[in-house]
Write a structure and sequence with these properties.
The complex is a heterodimer of chains A (about 850) and B (about 625). Helices cover about 30% and strands about 20% of the residues of chain A. In chain A, helix 7 crosses helix 21. Chain A has about 850 residues and is an alpha/beta fold. Chain B is α/β, with parallel strands linked by helices. Chain B has 27 helices and 17 strands. In chain B, strand 5 and strand 6 form a beta hairpin. Classes of the chains: A alpha/beta (about 850), B alpha/beta (about 625).
Chain lengths: ~850, ~625
Amino acid sequence: MGDKLIKLSIDGVEVEVERGRTILEAARSVGIKIPSLCYDPRMAPFGACRLCVVEEKGSAELIPSCFTPVRSGMEIFTHSPKVMESRRLQLQLILLNHPMICPRCEKEGECELQRLVYEYGLGETQYPWEPMVYPVDEASPLLRRDGNKCILCGRCVRICDEVQGVAELSFTRRGIRCVIDTDFHRPLRCEFCGQCLDTCPVGAITSECFDYKAKLWESLETTTPCPYCGCGCLLTILSKDGSIKRVFSDPERGFNDGNLCVKGRFGWDFVDSKERIMSPLLRLNGTLREVSWEEALRAVVDRLELIKSRYGPESLGVLLSARLTNEEYFLIKKLFVETLGTREIVLDGGASELGLSDGLSEVLGFGASTNSIREIREADALLVIGVDPSQTHPIVKNEIHLALRRNRAHLIVVGSYDTLLSERTKVSPLQSPSIPLLCRPGEEVFLLHGMIGLILEQGLQDEAFIKAHTEGFEGLFERKNEYLEAVNRLSSEVRENIERAVRSFSEANRGMILIGPGPWSYAYCREIAISCGTLALLTGHLGRKASGILFLREKCNTQGMIDMRIPFLKEGLREMERKIEEGRIKGLYVVGGSLPSSWQGLNQLEFVIVQDLFLDGLSEKVEVFLPVSSFIEKEGTYTSLERRVQRLHPLRPPLGQSRSDFEIFRDLLRYMEVSLSEESSEEVFRSLSKEIPSYQGVEDGKQWPKGEEFLSEDYLFQRKVKLSPLSSPPTKPPPEGYPFSLVSRASLFQSGRLSLKSENLKKVMEKPILEMNQEVAQSLKIEEGDWVELQTSGGRKTSFSVHLSPNPARGVLLAYSPSPIEISNKPLWVKIESYKGK
Amino acid sequence: MVRLTIENLPEIRRRLMPSSVLGEGQYGCMVCAGTGCVACNSLLLRKRLEEEIEARGLKERVKVFISGCNGFCAEGPILVVYPDGVFYKKLTPEDVPHLVEEHFIKGQPVEGFLYRDPRSKEKIPLMKDIPFFRHQVLRALRNRSLIDPENIEDYIAREGYAALAKVLSSMRPEEVIEEVKVSGLRGRGGAGFPTGKKWEEGRRYNSFPKYVICNGDEGDPGAFMDRSILEADPHAVLEGMVICGYAIDAHQGYIYVRAEYPLAIHRLTIAIEQARRYGLLGKDILGSGFDFDIEIYPGAGAFVCGESTALMYSLEGKRGMPRIKPPRSTEAGLWGQPTVLNNVETFANVPSILLHGGRWFAELGTEGSKGTKVFALTGAVHNVGLIEVPMGTTLRNIVYEIGGGIPEGRQFKAIQIGGPSGACLPESLLDTEVDFDSLDEAGAMMGSGGLVVMDDRTCMVDTARFFTEFSVDESCGKCVPCRVGMKVMLNLLNRIVQGEGRLEDIELLEKLGTHIKETSHCGLGKTAPNPALSTIRYFRGEYEAHIKEKRCPALVCVNLIQFKVNSEKCKRCGLCKKACPVEAIYWEKKEPARIDRDRCIRCRSCIQACKFGAIE
């Protein structure tokens, strides 16, 4: 390390930094402030504002410090008279072309330009100037851009390109007419992540969601994890009198580096939705009426105890959402499993995710993400399967984008449709194009087996790694021809791609596999995880930084839910539906989940109890409704997909009479006279970390086990892991006459029940469309915008407007959820009944 | 056609030598087909010439060729007749029968079409004796008026690709770089970075692929050096690029040419296609096993794309905006890969350096600047055109010997060197030698080679305003000083030429100009204040006249002209009345003219018409 350190002096202070660091970074490392308007550490330096100039002893020229690397022995002065003079003039120039409307600018008080003007004490200017007029964009939803206030620092352009990989904004025109805009000044068609707004140093990019609400210094600042996907970004929420005024992410906290996606930044307003129910409801004489908590909880306990005594414990079904806290799951286990004795529990969307955990566990003895999200950027090969991070895990997408851009990483996509990230591999001729391995749902395992077969056949496996850490390789090797057979069934195009994929992945220095739950069942997910685990072992991509497996968990606490080890029905909702129809389940307790209204047997239930923010759809069957508080009104912890345990920090008391799920379960246990030693969620966390070894000693914001960012070889391979021959799951041929698989996918803007209640997100929500492979559409003479009517093999019909793209596999139709046709996350077989032009 | 190899190249060259092409008693007609002459109908001239020669049955004795730019554009269309090199100027298609009769049948040069020296008034029949050519030394333009740019064999015949053959057969890449270093060649694009050093850096980085880029985005108004080279001798550039590719271990080259140079693109396309066919580009060049290919990329019109990093962004399909350095392009250029970018003229110099040695090249020039430099000489001189002179030639020599001095008996006032952001140097600095360092000392710069001569009818404030406006329009908008600062400078200059200047404006201009030079990001911004700063430095009096006396001494700034006839100077000729488009001038024979200032539209027609400077 010694020779990589550079010594220099800044304002007389001796500084030692790594070679390659800039003068600005060196100065900041010792607390010396150099002003800059165009610098944001998330992006490469740009050198536009020229405010960061410094003077070097012995040099007549001023040096821009934001991109000039340190040299040994430099003597730098950051505030010499010459430097100050230059900065003052530079600020004067910026100010000349900036409207002096500060009192009515949303950024007033936080504006970086305003602060510098004040700090440098600018007076009147002698320079002649006539105000210029620049375009304003008021037509885009959520974001408003004012070219007049823009100082052209380019931060929005660069964050959109370098971090997001979207490149929606660009410098347009030249010289003094230069302005940042979209092509031809059309309204934005982007991810609406608001990262541009976040980085803008002045008030040129604002949002009506935050405008004229509260000044920073009047607000309460609370940092808490985001309630949407499993990434676990930290939100910094500014609130005033208990209402959210603005959301951003403090780059100093959380793994997400200050980055947020559209849902994190704008999707929080469901907490104040008018549809939220504020008091407990009980059905009395056929109608739901507001009652006291006492009455409601008594009614719940009565019903639970009644059916248990009448039909036995297994007659109670429980449907759980994956958005509860770890502490709440802990109480749930106590209440439903240990006290009431039921195991008829469905984890909403969780069965597939559990399948992944169980599968990986079987191979590695460890069933969660082995590495961290931030390591993705360092990988040079990425295999993405069963998930499109650009839609469901935007922050992971950013990381993949960084890996593509900085390392020219190879991207392999396995699933029913290609990810939008593949587009990004086409921007440079030196970037190897993404390798899509597209197939119908249910064929993915064959693709993975095919990859494994090819690795074995071509001898691409990492022998040393296999020898050191595994046993049973021979058994796997013997059956390589079986795996290769799977490949032979695929189209020649896919076969070619598999060859490329295998080479890319096995030759990579750092390979990562990112797995989502796909449209798959528990059992299928298990097979996927086993295959992926085997693939990682064969190629030696485990046990090191940026080499390993990440499970892209769907919801904010899917991982925690799995970690809490609640027994569950492996076939999930289908199994529960069947049991209700068969009359084996008599009562249903729904916690924050949604019941498919298509279920036939609901009328046979003796009761349905719902505990949620909202009461949707099933109201006529609900006996008791218990209103819960939202994520900003409660305590507890979430565990992110990278095993990071983060505490929730409430910024206001529960709204109306709502109570946290924690309180409700605690009270129910008390009503049932179960002795509970834990009072608060901290106490529960302490108990649960005793019960669950991996949670022992985990601090807030750190990852289990023991704060490990990635699981080292030492950790993973304390014993040799066993490589076993792979088994192929059975395949079902499509029912006669139903040639397409209809797959629903979450979109960037809509991913389920919370986003549906966000007025902000509704502004950018897509129309319900059906995405179809363009070549298939061409052969059927279907054109962009045509309406098609689909019929499912179950006989239901629905129509969609068609969008053609190269992304879906040939036999796959993609519907964005929520879609008019109610689909669970399992694929349906459909046929195209009819179609007509626009 | 055979593929050329290192072994068969000398033999094939011998067969193509000019001596074997033009036999005993034969004539060769080189019709200039540079852009200037083409615009003056030289292609029709060539057609008529061919027809006439055919009609007279002279086809065996007289061969007609086209050549690239001859350089003496002021006299176009130009025809040079070999073997003697008789120079004919300003020919029209109608002149052809007479010319053919006299020169090719009677064997007499046609007096009437020969060049006449404006000073000695003598006719000069041979090109080499004309002062415009006599003072030039041709290195980059070595094939001027000697080869047909659309025929690779002409180039091969004149030692073309011999340097490449030598390099590929007998030199290691390090030796090539050493030779270029010994030559002292510095980048001809303007900044003068040592070429050998650049190549050495490009070789040093071990990241592949690497690229070679030829910068042909010549954007300076009035400059046409690179265009002329590309049009006249495209293979010299290609050969230079392949040699560079070999030296740095690159296998792909790009030529970024302005889309406004269709003829250059056309000839480059032909040249590349021919070179590929002859095995001089593509796989296994000259049978040596070395692969290198070249693609043309037409630019999209932004001046700033001549800046090397902006050019690379543009090549990548992005907006042309300079990026920060480090890393230098030799480390991370095009697509983030090591890239050597040189200007057209730099590459054109490379083959002869490798063929004759770096020492031979370094014999010419000054201590710090070796070889020659091509300039586009324009403005108030007799001989407007493309010239090549040894480094160290004085500006005076260029203006008066090669340029033939100032026409119409006017006075020299200034010479602007270095393109739109170059400096204006006064008479007192005419003895400055053109080399990188002397020009730098004088507050000017070499630039890419534009030379604009101005006479006493030029207002220096207005000139500064004009070039400043160009820089304001062409600034990419990235950094504050160039984007806003230059616009402020323009506002100040505008107010001065409009008569609203204030005393402090000169100081404000100087302060701001210095600030812009100090803090701008790229070469464009760092030099953009030069026209204003240099005119303030050398012509301060004119600024003061504009501001204090509200007077434009050169009578250019219309707001500062009184449009009054000085009756003492008026010779009562009435030319001003004739010139006036709005009948605002009253004149009777033998009476001084009088201007009705209510009617006058301040168009300056009278000022231009008056030969006596009587209008003030």
